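PT: before anyone asks, these are the final sequences, not the draft ones from last week. 204 residues across everything. Please model them as a single complex and drop the result in this thread when it's through.
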Amino acid sequence: MTSKVERHADQLSALGHPIRLKILRYVVTGGTEGIAAGDIQTHVELPASTLSHHLKRLIDASVVSTRAEGTFLYYSANYDALRALTDYLWEDCCKRGTKGCC
Amino acid sequence: MTSKVERHADQLSALGHPIRLKILRYVVTGGTEGIAAGDIQTHVELPASTLSHHLKRLIDASVVSTRAEGTFLYYSANYDALRALTDYLWEDCCKRGTKGCC
DNA sequence: AGGTTGATTCTATATTTTTCGAAATAAGAA
DNA sequence: TTCTTATTTCGAAAAATATAGAATCAACCT
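LR: through. Structure below.
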């Protein structure tokens, strides 16, 4: 089993690429319904294979999920995972601290 | 000038490594006063040169700042930058969305 | 069945990242 | 000034990531 730090680092790393970050921010606009891969492709203007690679990375890190509908694949954000991720950064804030920060 | 996406992707990428994430979470416990590099080193148990490389990466992405005091270098989190970063992910949430999510 | 469309996998190459020993710098103590 | 301590920079090798053309797969339409 991979540790908590490792899983979260992997998620941050997945988001740590200009294109994937752009993808996530676009996907996030689609709510729980999601956005089709083709729609994403016209948004980011990338060869399908490259895009697919990036989407897979986001899926593997489970920051987005996918749902098939006929030939289409709809991608949507994993809102819970994202929230947990951002919370994780602040978890121990000021435990030893001296001045206000969080 | 690098774009907003690029700067934020760089910050996420900086945090997207198990060791650097561990470092940040440790640094965050130190409040605005910060934590000395040597202290961080005993926490992560890494050769000084490797640690230094990782710290530089965090500095370059400006998720942490540094302050010299004699021979010591104190590292502290850039709380504002971190907050801006996490906010950025949700910025356009549900703009086209149909169901509740954010 | 045959053709088209939406999307992923295969494969290969180019680039970036990670790691750490050794050398360098710089402050403080003896 | 010499020695130690705190930390960074240099340099070089190993590992991971990014990119995209070509091949593939699956669903839909006629």
